[in-house]
Amino acid sequence: MNILFVCSRNQWRSPTAETLYKNHQNHQVRSAGTSSSARIKVTAKLIQWADLIFVMEKRHKQRLLERFSVEIEDRQIIVLDIPDHYLFMDPELIDILQQSVSPYLKGAGE
């Protein structure tokens, strides 16, 4: 399974999620941002690659729907409701991500 994590600038939240889940044998993980200043920007190609997309906030889902309506059609998008209050690999962010994401990966061999 290919999993994409999305936040605004691909600086703290989505790279933390990517780091947490990247070494699992049953899925591939990438991260990107919706902002024009994102370290890695979300593209149609990334959307098409992903089987499952986790966004940190509702506004990220809305931006994906606005920019990639065709590509997003058959994709499951999960809103994690994680505000932009954390730095990369913040222990509290790691706990929140693990609690929020892991239930969705149980059927994917986590």
UniProtKB/TrEMBL annotation:
The source's superkingdom equals Bacteria
Q: Which residues form the Phosphotyrosine protein phosphatase I domain?
A: 3-38
**Name this protein carries in UniProt:** Protein tyrosine phosphatase
- Sections of the chain in a coiled coil: none
Q: What is the lineage of its organism?
A: Bacteria, Pseudomonadati, Bacteroidota, Cytophagia, Cytophagales
Task: Give one Pfam family, short name only.
Answer: LMWPc
